[in-house]
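Annex B.
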Amino acid sequence: MPELVFFSGTMDCGKSTLALQIEHNRSTRGLQGMIYTRNDRAGEGKLSSRLGLVTDSVEAGEGFDFYAHIVAHLSAGGRADYVIADEAQFLAPEQIDQLARIVDDLELDVFAFGITTDFRTKLFPGSQRLVELADRIEVLQVEALCWCGARATHNARTVGGQMVVEGAQVVVGDVNQPETVVGYEVLCRRHHRRRLTAAAARAAALSPDVLPVDPANGPSGRD
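Thymidine kinase: predicted structure tokens.
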């Protein structure tokens, strides 16, 4: 039976890489898929991975109707054996409903990939609707790691290397960005709660209060 499958995880855990792998595996078996994405790091109409892989896609912007697009494609003589929707957290709930309708009415598998929660640990509306409707939810097994080495479970937004917890829910960015721009970092829950990013941890480690005494300039012996 066709399914709506939601592949979820933090940033930097390989969601887009898996989407591209699914596309590769199925296309090499003669199947043809429809690939959609929104706000990909490589630009409009692209599905890309941090490993450097990229393929063309349909940009599913605000107001885009997945069901109508697939029906029009099929009615024009096109072929679609499955659907891939990356960056699904950015989709509106009604667009997730359209993906579910593709599964139910057109009997196509739909593979959706997205982040579950935002930088404030709040569910994205698109991800929430996927949790509500998906036939299956798969948490990616390639674990992203916090700077401390623990499993990363939360996405942090940073400005100048400092974590922020206020602002618009959707601000496009990526991990490993220069500290002077808006970026993102994956953290374990403990360090997300403490707002302790890698940059903040380095600053704390270099604080004069915790530096060891230089033997060449040690205490003079005077009180």
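Helices lie at 15-27, 66-75, 93-106, 125-133, 189-193, 198-205. Residues 219-223 have pLDDT under 50 and may be disordered. Further annotation is deferred to the next reporting cycle.
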